[in-house]
């Protein structure tokens, strides 16, 4: 059995506890020194976006209904009726093979002038962290209408640059919104999703009202130092690195007193089996985790897209396997 179980949210820790699995809780880290506020007008100029628009954005994969992208698009027809200068940028593939046909939905609702989408090639190949940092800084409001989330890394990245937030008041999103410049949208009855998980769907009207109320409350180009401070205190590399040090010390203590276990090394070898694709959140998680553990361990990355045999995995003290069906069915 595992020497230590680690959850990436308080919500996940509680669910594990209900199933009889005690665990530690350590968030996946964000490089808050890099994801920092800068001039929103200059950030928008990079993309050719209007300087005086009310920019709303979301970052996430278009995989079925889980991310709530269809709800956000439908809600935006009410938003633009109230705020004509509002624009919505969705950093996703509008025609992903296992997702929704968002192009058709936008067209049917006559929202084409108000919704901005990226080039499909750029979404597939991925954008650099410099591009993503500029994107978050170009927004007035970040919206996460997901039906469930394990942690919600883009939300933390958006908070790190000082974005105000609108998000579903369910699963791990709830703990992220605590003491933040944020509006939590209440969910309706839980529904069972094709991914064999429960989802917590919000009403289109409630989501639209939350976005409109965010505009009234914080206006345009507002930078929330409160949200940035929450990100620094909860998910920065230094904070997460120290929390992992505590977990590794506990694992070390248990191994030292287990006579059949392999001797503990001063710098244990950690192998991350993940992906190097830039457009996948799993890759971002892996990179940030490796940075936070870098000084205490010897790190190796095995690209899951080229993995055909266990013989390709180096001998190690800890194997961290990142599985994501969309990149490795």
Could you give a short description of this structure?
38% of the residues lie in helices and 18% in strands. It has 329 residues and is of the alpha/beta class.
Task: Spell out the key features of this protein.
single chain, 329 residues, alpha/beta, six-stranded parallel sheet, 13 strands, 38% helix, globular, disordered C terminus
Describe this structure in words.
- By secondary structure, this protein is α/β, with parallel strands linked by helices.
- It has 12 helices and 13 strands.
- The chain has a 6-stranded parallel β-sheet with strand order 5-4-3-6-7-8, sandwiched between helices.
- Helix 12 links the parallel strand 11 (269-274) and strand 12 (298-303).
- It is globular and about 65 Å long.
What does the radius of gyration come to?
A: 21 Å
Helices, by number, come to 12
Instruction: Summarize the amount of helix as a percent range.
Output: 25-40%
* Low-confidence blocks of residues: 325-329
Distance between the termini: 26 Å
The average pLDDT score comes to 87
Number of strands: 13
Q: Which class do the helix and strand fractions yield?
A: alpha/beta
* Shape designation: globular
- How many strands, which pairing sense, and closed or not: the largest β-sheet? 6 strands, parallel
What is the spatial order of strands in the main beta sheet? 5-4-3-6-7-8
Q: What is the H/E order?
A: EHEHEHEHEHHEHEHEEEHHHEHEE
Strand content: 15-25%
């Amino acid at each position: 059995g595992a020497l230590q179980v680690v959850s990436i949210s308080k919500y996940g820790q509680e669910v594990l506890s209900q199933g009889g699995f005690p665990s530690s809780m350590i968030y996946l880290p964000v490089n808050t020194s890099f994801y920092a506020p800068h001039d929103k007008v200059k950030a928008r100029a990079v993309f050719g976006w209007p300087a005086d628009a009310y920019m709303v954005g979301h970052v996430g994969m278009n995989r079925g209904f889980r991310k709530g992208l269809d709800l956000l698009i439908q809600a935006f027809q009410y938003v633009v009726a109230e705020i004509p200068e509002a624009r919505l940028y969705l950093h996703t593939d509008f025609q992903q093979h296992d997702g929704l046909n968002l192009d058709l939905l936008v067209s049917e609702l006559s929202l084409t002038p108000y919704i901005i989408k990226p080039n499909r090639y750029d979404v597939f190949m991925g954008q650099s962290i410099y591009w993503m940092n500029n994107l978050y800084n170009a927004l007035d409001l970040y919206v996460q209408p997901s039906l469930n989330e394990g942690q919600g890394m883009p939300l933390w990245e958006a908070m790190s640059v000082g974005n105000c937030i609108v998000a579903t008041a369910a699963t791990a999103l709830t703990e992220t919104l605590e003491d933040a410049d944020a509006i939590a949208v209440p969910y309706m009855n839980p529904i069972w999703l094709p991914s064999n998980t429960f989802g917590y769907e919000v009403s289109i009207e409630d989501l639209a009202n939350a976005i409109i109320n965010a505009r009234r409350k914080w206006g345009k180009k507002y930078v929330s130092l409160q949200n940035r401070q929450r990100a620094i205190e909860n998910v920065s590399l230094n904070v997460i690195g120290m929390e992992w040090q505590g977990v590794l010390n506990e694992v070390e203590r248990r191994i030292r007193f287990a006579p059949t276990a392999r001797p503990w090394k001063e710098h244990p070898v950690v192998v991350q089996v993940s992906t190097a694709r830039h457009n996948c959140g799993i890759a971002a998680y892996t990179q940030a985790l490796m940075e936070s553990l870098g000084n205490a361990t010897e790190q190796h990355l095995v690209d899951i897209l080229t993995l055909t045999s266990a013989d390709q995995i180096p001998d190690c003290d800890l194997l961290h396997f990142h599985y994501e069906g969309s990149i490795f069915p």
